[in-house]
Write a structure and sequence with these properties.
single chain, 407 residues, mainly alpha, DNA polymerase, domain 1, hpI Integrase, Chain A, 3 domains, 3-stranded antiparallel β-sheet
Length: 407
């Protein structure tokens, strides 16, 4: 009587159409409890025998991945909506969804997840750095920035890491890929002279105190526009930062209603912080509050009171893009080249570091996660600090040298 084959010895056979097949028991379906088999096909017995032997070895070492027809594009959709969306901010989801839909899925989405190779991803990165921009504007570069390609690398890396966890693939192929190196953009700040001219024109606009607050505290644009009067303690001179105003796109809504303003929490624990407000700015905020009370009285029932420190004339949130337009107008009045709102935040940090403030203090006020990030961003200032340290040491050595001569 022939000996019964073991569960993982597998079987090999040939169909009537000449195709060779092999199968092996891989376990039970957790949902039904029924036995599951993996099947392999080929044109020769040797081919399917090799596939069977490979599966047997992987089952023995615990690295076997059940064959699947899931493509990268299908898995990106699953990962984005089931694993990423519940844990990321709306703006981050919007960016990830756009990069998947416009760049990743058209180029790599049709590839079966198990067949994805590092060289395919590397070629994709290289092509995007050369000419990957969609809807190219006249005179702009056709290549995508290294930062954008690195964000896509992060999406793929995290999506494939999850695919490994759930058993769809045996390894994360992005580990064998080299994303482009990012070059930090030059920090643009206001010079002391430009800053003085800018401060001189702020009282010409009802939202001038908002720009003054950013310049004096280093708040991000969204943080300033999300401030409520209940977040401020003007007697103590502090602002409690706990949220940010951002614009998000909801593709599930009709075209004219997709863009909406939402308040969201900081992306890191360090973003939730208490920031000191200089006395001069406190006085400006008190005057601003009095003017806002007059606006409320004038608008009557048309005023929508959201407790916002910086609001429209009817009480609604100020659109970030409109806020940028106001800044450009004020800079033009001051005779200063156009800058983004972030330049005010950079100017705040630069002035403090130039004045000799400890980088750790600057880091906590800015809401950076680590002091190394602050020093990296403001390396142009930290070099000046190093020179000052060298000068101090030079004086110390001179003093010690003079003292030793006297002895």
């Amino acid at each position: 009587m022939p000996k019964k084959r073991g569960n993982r010895e597998g079987t090999i056979g040939r169909r009537k159409d000449g195709v060779w097949y092999a199968s092996i028991l891989i376990g039970r379906d957790p949902a039904t409890g029924k036995l599951k088999r993996a099947w392999f096909y080929g044109s020769t017995r040797q081919e399917v025998a090799a596939k069977l032997a490979k599966a047997q070895g992987e089952l023995q070492t615990g690295t076997f991945v059940e064959p699947t027809k899931v493509t990268l594009g299908q898995w990106l959709d699953t990962w984005l909506n089931e694993y990423a969306k519940p844990h990321i901010r709306p703006t981050t989801y919007q960016m990830y969804e756009y990069l998947c839909r416009v760049h990743l899925k058209p180029a790599l989405g049709q590839i079966p997840l198990k067949s994805l190779r590092p060289e395919q991803i590397q070629a994709f990165y290289n092509s995007k750095r050369e000419a990957g921009r969609v809807n190219l504007r006249k005179g702009s570069s056709p290549s995508l920035s290294a930062r954008t390609v690195n964000i896509m690398h992060g999406i793929l890396r995290r999506a494939l890491k999850q695919a490994v966890k759930v058993g769809l693939v045996a390894r994360n192929v992005t580990d064998a890929v080299s994303p482009p190196r990012q070059q930090r953009r030059e920090i643009r700040v206001l010079t002391p002279e430009e800053q003085a001219r800018f401060l001189a024109v702020l009282d010409r606009h009802r939202l001038g105190p908002a720009f003054l607050l950013i310049l004096a505290t280093g708040l991000r644009r969204g943080e300033a526009l999300a401030l409520r009067w209940s977040d401020l303690d003007l007697a103590a001179g502090v602002a409690n930062i706990s949220r940010s105003l951002v614009e998000v796109r909801d593709r599930s809504k009709p075209k004219g209603e997709r863009l909406t303003l939402v308040f969201q929490e900081p992306k890191s624990r360090s973003g939730r912080r208490t920031v000191p407000i200089p006395k001069g700015v406190v006085a400006a905020l008190k005057a601003h509050k009095a003017r806002q009370a007059e606006e409320k009285l004038f608008m009557g029932g048309k005023y929508e009171d959201n407790d916002l420190v910086f609001a429209t004339e009817t009480g609604g949130p100020v659109h970030p893009r409109h806020f940028d337009e106001i800044l450009r107008s004020l800079l033009k009045e001051a005779g200063v080249e156009p800058r983004g709102v972030h330049a005010l935040r950079h100017s705040f940090a630069t002035r403090l570091l130039e004045a000799g403030e400890h980088p750790k203090v600057v880091q906590e006020i800015l809401g950076h996660s680590q002091v190394s990030l602050t020093l990296d961003i403001y390396s142009h200032v930290s070099m000046d600090l190093k020179r000052r340290a060298a000068e101090k040491m030079d004086e110390i050595l001179k003093t010690e040298k003079r003292a030793s001569h006297k002895d």
